[in-house]
Fold Nitric oxide reductase subunit B.
Amino acid sequence: MGEYRGYWWTLIVILTVTFGILGFAGVEVYRQAPPIPERVVTDTGAPVMTGDDILQGQSAWQSAGGMQVGSIWGHGAYQAPDWSADWLHRELVAWLELAAREQHGRPFDALSEEQKAALTYQLKREYRRNSLQSGTLVLSERRAKAIEQTASHYEQLFGDAPALRAMRDNYAMKENTLADPARREALTHFLFWTAWAAATERPGMVATYTNNWPPEPLIGNHPTTENVLWSLACVVILIAGIGGLIWGWSFLRRHDETPVAPLASDPLGGGALTPSQRALGKYVFLVLALFIFQVFIGGLTAHYTIEGQGFYGVDLSQILPYSLARTWHLQSAVLWIATAFLATGLFLAPLINGGADPRYQKLGVDVLFWALILVVVGAFAGNYLAIAQLMPPQWNFWFGHQGYEFLDLGRVWQLALFGGLCFWLVLMLRAMVPAIRVGGDKNLLALLCVSTVAIGLFYGSGLFYGERSNITVMEYWRWWVVHLWVEGIFEVFATAALAFVFAALGLVSRRTATAASLASASLFMIGGVPGTFHHLYFSGTTTPIMAIGAAFSALEVVPLAVLGYEAWERWSYRRTAPWMQDLRWPLAFFVAVAFWNMLGAGVFGFMINTPVALFYLQGLNTTAVHAHAALFGVYGFLALGFTFMVLRYIRPQVQLNEGLMRVGFWALNGGLVLMIFTSLLPVGMFQFQASVSTGMWYARSDAFLQQGFLETLRWIRTFGDVVFICGAVALAWQAVVLGLWGRGRGDVSPAPKPAASPAE
C-alpha cells in the first residue's frame, strides 16, 4: 500500500460497511417478501386458486416476454399497462359495480354521492384487510366474482378476442400473446397475486406489501409517512454530501505540484502489436455490429408505441412484436457495452505484461470471441422462440426468456455468459498477477486488477434466483447485476483503466492517477452499493429498505458534482503533445461521459430517486429518460471511447475521417437530447400529472396514452431517433469500413507503430 495506505483503508472500510448493509438488508428482503398463499378460497370454502397456480402463472408471464410486455410493480416496459395497477383498478371497479347492484339494484355511477362513499369505504376495508392465515387466503364471494370478471378480460386480452383487438394494438401486443388458454388462465392468477400484494396491508402495519404502491385513491394507496420523511432526508443528505465533498476534495484528490513533462512520442504507439492485440479487430466489429443492431431495433421499438402492431402500415407484430424488439434492444445494449469493456481489458493485458502476450493468450482471445458469438446467437434465438410460443414451456426459463429486464436471456445462455466473463478474468489475471509481483508502485494496477475480478464475478449474482423465486427476491438479485455490476463495478473499472492509460501515456504522474482512482472508487461505492435499494422501494420490501435506498441513493449523486472538472481535465490532455491529437476523439467521448453522468445519472436520476417522487413516477416515461441518458449517455459513450481508443492502436495506419467523426459524435449527442426533451420527458411529465391526480392505472392506460397530443409527442421523437441513427451509422462506417476493412482518409496522421494485419 505504501503512501496510499489511507486511500486503500478508506476503500476497504467503505466496501465492508456498504456490502454489509446490502447483505444484512438482503436477509430482510427474503424474510419479508410478500407471501404466496398455499390456497385461495372464498369464505364459503370454494377454491379459487392455489400457490402452484400463481407460480405457474409467473412462468407463463415470463414466457410471454415478462417485463417486456407492460410492467409488474413498476418495473418493465412502458407501453402496455402496469399489470399490477391495471388489475387492481379493474378488480376494484368490478367489486363496486357488484356491490352497487347487490345493495341498491343500480349501477355504481347511478348512486348518490353518499351511497358511493359508503361502498368505497367498504371496498377499502375489505381490500386492505389481510385475510391470509396459516397459508390460506380467504376472500369474500363478491371479491371472487370481481376476480373472475377481471380474469376474463385478461384471458381475452392475451388471446385473440376480436373485441380487444384495438386495445392490443394500443398496448403493442401481438395477437395470441399467450396462445394456450390454460397458460392464459394461469397468468391471471399471477397478476391477481401481484395486485393483492399491492392492496393488502402487512401484518401489524398500515402500509401494503408494496408500501402503498401503486397510487390508487379508491383504497387509499397514498405515500406513507415514512415515504415523505425519507424523501426529505434524501434532500438533506444530498446537500450535506455535496458540502462534504467540496470540503474534502482537496484531501482526496491531491495533485503533484510539479506538472508532468509531455513526452515526445506516444509511448503506447512505438512497439509492435502482440498477436492477441491484433486479434481484437473482430471484437471491435462485434461491438459496432451489436451497437448498430441495437440502434435500429430501438427505432422500431419506439415506433411501436405509435402504431402498436405495425411499422408504417406493415404488420410486423406476429414476426417481430414489440416485446421481442424491446428484449433485443436491451440485451444488445448490455452485450455491446460489455464486449467493449472486455476488448479494452484484453488490449491492456499485454501492456501490463511488459509488452508480451502470456502463453496462448491469442488462442484465449479467439475462444472468448466465439463464445460471445454463441451467447448472442443462442440468447436471441431463444428469445424469439419463447415469445413466438414455439418453445416447450418447461424449456423456456433455461433456453428462452426469463422475463426480467436486462436479464431476459435464458438461464443456459446466462450461465454461458458468466463462464465467458470468468474466462476473460483468467486471461486478464495471467497478465496482471505477474506484473503486480514485480517491484515498484503497483497500487493502480492492483485497483485495476480488483475491478477486473469484480467484473468477472459480480455478473454471477444474477444466478441466485430461479424460475419460481418470489419476484421480490428476484428483483433483489436482478439489481445486483443492473445496478451494481453495470453502474458500480464498470464505473470503477473504467476509472482505473483510464487512469492506467493516462499514466502510461505520460499525461499524469502515476501517483496522481493512483490517488485519484482510489478516491473516486471510494466516492462511487459509498452511495452506489446500498443505493441499489432505491430500485426496490415498492417491490415488496419494508420501510428499512426504503430508508437505506433513499439515504444512500442521495450520496450517489455527490461525486457527479465534480465531473465537470474531470471532463475539462481529460479534454485538456489533447494539447499536452502533438501526438495526443490522434486520441482526441476518444477523449471527446470521455468528455461526453462526464456530461451525461451529471445530467442523466445525476439530474434525471435524482429527479426520480426520492421515495415520494418515485411513488408517482415509477414505471412512467420519466424512468426511460433516466435510462437512456444514463445507460447510453454514460456507458454507451464510455464504451465507444474505449472502442475507438483500441481501434487507434490496433489499426495505427488508419486516418480517422474528421467529417464522419464530427457527424457521428454530435449526432449521437444531439439525437439523445432531442429524443429526451422533445418526447420522453414531456410524455413522462403528463403521465406524472395523471398519476398524481387519478392513479397509476390511468397514467399507463391506452385511454390516456392514445390522446392526440401524446401521440404527436411520440411522433416527434422520430426526429431525435433519425438524428441518433445517422450518428451511429457514421461511427460504424468509420470504424468498420474505413478502420477495419480499409484505409481511411482524414486529418489525423498515423501513429509511429508498424501496420497491423487485417481484422481477424
